[in-house]
Amino acid sequence: MDIRRIQPRNWNSRAVVYGNTAYFSGIVADDKSGTMAEQTANILNKIDALLADVGSNKSRVLSAVVYLADMDRKDEMNESWIAWMDPDNPPARAAVGSELTPGTLVEIMITAAV
Asked: Which residues contact 53 (CB under 8 A, 6 or more apart)?
């Protein structure tokens, strides 16, 4: 099987596809001035575009890890997540409190079927 690297950069690739599975790097918002919900929505829009790049979509997301700078604000992230995810195909998901780069409130990493 071939390995496809999507948007390779000096330190990582945005995604790596092997077989029928795509592994995505942690994705952060472009605009760090937004709220937790706004940053989450921005990230999920970016994930939609990356899923399309690998020939997949949000209904095929298998798992996600959501890193939060402040676990007390998890409900704000969940508002955007629930509005985005396919309710008929919810992925396995964990939310983890983590120290993130300055201004970053959320980082999301997913694995999806292609």
From this structure: 6, 7, 15
Buried b (16+ CB within 10 A) or exposed e, 64-95: bbbbbbeeeeeebbbebbeeebeeeeebeeeb
Q: How far apart are CA 83 and CA 37, in angstroms?
A: 11
- The model's pLDDT over 52-105, given as tens digits with 9 standing for 90+, comes to 999 999 999 999 999 999 999 999 999 999 999 999 999 999 999 999 999 999
Q: Set out the domains of the chain in order of their start, with CATH numbers.
A: 3-113 (3.30.1330.40)
For 1, 18, 41, 79, the CA distances from 38, given in Å and listed in that order, are 38, 31, 5, 10
